[in-house]
Structures are given as C-alpha cells and as structure tokens.
Amino acid sequence: MRLTVQVQLLADADQRAALQATLALTNQAANLGSEIAWQRGAFRTYDLQQLAYGQIRALGLSAQPAVRVIKKVADAYKLDRRTKRTFRADAAQPYDDRCLSWQPDQQTVSIWTVAGRLKGIRFAVGEQQRKLLAHRKGESDLVHRNGKLYLYATCEVPEASVVAPNGFVGVDLGIVNVATTSDGTRYAGKHLNRIRHRNQRLRAKLQHKGTKSAKRLLKQRCRKEARFAADTNHVISKRIVAEAERTGRGIALEDLQGLRGRVRLCKSQRATLHTWSFHQLGSFIAYKALRAGVVVIHVNPGAYLAELLRLWACRPGQPPGPSYLPLPVVRLRWARRLERSPQHRRARWCGLGCRQPAARGRATCRPSCEPLSSWPTRCAAPETMWPGPGSLPGRGDGTVARARWLDRPAGWATHGTAAGR
To answer: Is the full-model pTM beyond 0.70?
Structure first.
C-alpha cells in the first residue's frame, strides 16, 4: 500500500534561493518539452526523450534531472492530449534516489540543485511520519507552497492480514450528518453544518465584492476550508475504522458513483450537497481499513433499501421507520425524514404490509389492496459482495441482489430483491 508523507524543509536563505531557482529552471525546461511534444505529437516518454533531451540539457540541467523533466511532461499528457500543458514557475518537481538522498536519523536530506548538491538540509517531521519514512520507496516531489518548501515522499507500507469479518458496520453518508453508522453513531452534525454555511455565506460575500483584496482572501479561505474538510474526514474515518476493528466487523459503504448525475436539486441545495468531499472520506476509510486489516465493501444503496422493504413486508401494520427494525441496517435519510414527519406519526398503516397509509375507517389502504408477496417482481442476478456468511442482515448466502422494480406502483424508484418474500 502506497502512502505519501509530507515533510517541511527548514532551509536557510541561500538554500531556499537555490531550491527556488531549481524549480524555475526545471519548469522552464518542462514548458519547452511540452511545446515540442505538442508540435510533434510525441507524447510518449521514449519518443519525447529522443526529441527534447538535447535542448533541455542545453538549458543547464544535468542528465538525470533532464530525464525526470521529460517524464513529468509525458505523465501530464497521459490524462488528456487535446490540451497543451503548461507548468508554473514554482510547480512541483519529482526527484529520484540519484538526485535526492534521505538521512532519517539526522532528519536531513541531500538534494541536487542548479547551484550544486546541497547537503544537510534539515526537515521537520512528526513521529508518525518518521515511522512511515522507514518504508520510503520511489520518487519524492519538491513542492513550493505559500512561501514554504516541502518534500512529498512515497512510502510502501506493508498491509495487515485481512480477517474474515463477523458482520458489517454500515455507513450512511448524508448532508445533515456526514456519516451515520448502523450502530446509531452520528458524526459531524449541526456544528459542522453551521461552519459550512458560514463559510458559504462569507465566500459568496467576497465573490460579490470582487476586489483584489477579496480575491486574495478567497484564495486563503479556499485552502482553509480544504484543510478543515480533510481534517474532519480523517477524524471520522479513524473512528469508524477503530470501531470496526474493535468489534471484528467489516465496513459497508454506499457506492455513490454518478451521484451528481442522478440527483437533481434546487439551486439553494446544490452547494450543500456538492461542497463536501465524500469521495475523500471513502478513500480515507479504505486506506485506514487496509492498514488495520478491516474489510471494506461498496454496496449499492438500493441493497440496503431492499433489506428494509423485505423486513417491512414481514412486519405488517408497523410504520416503515428504521427504529422499528431489528436489523442493524443503515438508517436511510429519506426514511428518517419520513419517520420524523407529523403526517407519519398520525397515520395508521395498512395491515397487509404494502406500506401505504390506511384509509379512513379501514384497516387497509383500499379494499383491493394486495400483500407485498403478490406483487410481480423481476430481479437481476445476485452480485457477490463478500464470500462469507452474514454479508448483509437477513442474508446468509453472502450475496446482495441488485434488481429493478419494474412493476411497482408509481413513485417507487429504487432497487429491490425478491429473496425472503
């Protein structure tokens, strides 16, 4: 498993000037290599090196830094070759072990610059990062940000042995609470939302003002909000993984791929939904679980809903609130809202289990109501999520069925399973 460790270089004035001059020259060479690649259509590393190596060396770079610059340009064109790539004067520069050596015990590095080899540059590092540096392997990047110099080191950390989970902890990602587990624990609720709304109002105010000082403050606040979100996601993911490791369970996350394309919201709600990095939270949970030996699966949200619907069919006469369910399933957001509504609390529910409110003076919603088991259903083939028992509550075969509700009444746009009916 690859992790990145960030350390800050404690360079003096002369060392800082040499490092900044190195970044400026290497990025000038990168722009030259990008121009050659764009004009000649040579985007592969080998082809670009044949064309640009001599010209880049003529700028004053040594052999190995010139090769690293060419590789950086080729990597930039891997994502998209329809746009010409340009590099800032202070953009990051990769170093390999020929140009950079580490002395973790002395907390120093030796690095190549245009002014020669600089030895004994000290760096600041935490205790956790010091342990990770023992597994350093591969390239390191020299980064200049906010007037400070950093090194990003790649570390190959050994993975823990994975143990078959004794059940799963479901994690529901939402807006009111960033994460809610199937145990009922809620993470980052009202306090976080107040901070997010305050940042949103202040950002809109500065954008409306539009002066140079407002733009400068917007730049600072953007980084501040990103750091705050990353720290919150780290704290949430650490607690979820620790709880799963303590109880010997795995973690089941919602698969939110393509959510922005599926969900249509009014303008006032778009910022609330799209300004939090749920993908970052999922990646933090994934790598922390990998280090702890905890299994992580991604489940279609409809699979959880299918378990709710199956249980509701077996418990006629009770409202579809998750607090009435004995299964440790994820508390769906729309179900929580329905349970808290006054109409739900006053309603009498159909005794046949179709989850419709009962008609006035009747025990069912309508005279022709049919039980859930009689509704026609066409289901897809099950999709195996984990080869072990108890992957989801109520299913002992280790599978989660993903299906479309094609013949349901109007208003049911979800997934389901025919198992257990």
So the answer is: no
Q: What is the pLDDT of residue 62?
A: 92
Token digits for 95?
């170093």
Residue 171 one-letter amino acid: V
CB-neighbour burial class of residue 376 (10 A; exposed 0-12, middle 13-18, buried 19+): exposed
Q: Which residues fall within 8 angstroms of residue 264, CB to CB, at 6 or more apart?
A: none
> Which residues are registered as beta bridge partners of 143?
150
Pairing of strands 250-254, 168-173: parallel
Q: How many CB atoms lie within 10 A of CB 122?
A: 17
| Core vs surface per residue 341-371: b (16+ CB within 10 A) or e | eeebeeebbbbbbbbeebeeeeebbeeebee
pLDDT value at residue 377 = 33
Q: Could you write out the three-class secondary structure of the chain?
A: CEEEEEEEEECCHHHHHHHHHHHHHHHHHHHHHHHHHHHHCCCCHHHHHHHHHHHHHHCCCCHHHHHHHHHHHHHHHHHCCCCCCCCCCCCCEEECCCCEEEECCCCEEEEEECCEEEEEEEEECCHHHHHHHCCEEEEEEEEEECCEEEEEEEEECCCCCCCCCCCEEEEEECCCCCEEECCCCEECCHHHHHHHHHHHHHHHHHHHHCCHHHHHHHHHHHHHHHHHHHHHHHHHHHHHHHHHHHHCCEEEEECCCCHHHHCCCCHHHHHHHHCCCHHHHHHHHHHHHHHHCCCEEEECHHHHHHHHHHHHHHCCCCCCCHHHCCCCCCCCHHHHHHHHCHHHHHCCECCCCCCCECCCCCCCCCCCCCCHHHCCCCCCCEEECCCCCCCECCECCCEEECCECCCCCCCCCCECCCCCC
Paired tokens of 30: 């990168």
Q: Would you say residue 385 has pLDDT above 50?
A: no
Position 306: which residue type?
A: A
Q: Could you tell me the two tokens for 404? A: 């479309």
CA distance linking residue 50 with residue 48, whole number of Å = 5
Q: What tens digit of pLDDT does each residue of 185-220 get?
A: 888 777 887 888 888 888 889 999 989 999 988 888
* Residue 246 phi, psi dihedral angles, 5° rounding: -65, -40
